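Protocol step 4 of 6: structure prediction from sequence.
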Amino acid sequence: MTNTTGGTQPEIQVVTPPQGAAVGTTTIEDAVVAKIAGIAARDVSGVHALGGGAARMVGAIRDALNTTDLSQGISVAVGEAQITVDVTIVAEYPVALQKVADDVRAAIHRDMVDLVGAGVVEVNVTIDDVHVPSDDEGDTADTDEAPTA
């Protein structure tokens, strides 16, 4: 899955005629829509990470450089007034995978309607992996010490 960051052409134009105020258009770029979807998906309980294996590897490098890509694992197709979102996630173990997928769908749909103001055609969720915490994650033993006899 690739991130859709939009080109030079904006996709969503929301025209709101306010009463007694200036009239104009609001343009929301694809990259903004993808970032909002990524933030919404990350906030769902049971989601460990976003993106497939290669995207997560690049994401780890970005995180080390303190330049996190919030739209990692998100692809959007933005039309005149409707949005389709594809998201790839890594779920925590043990969680009900269908529940996590449904929660991700609901969170993205809610934020697209509330923050972007556009209808959502569909939110497709791909579960790429399951994160299993290993027993040695919390082990802080120093491995540089020489063994004592």
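Step 5 (inspection) to follow. The CA atoms of residues 37 and 108 lie 5 Å apart.
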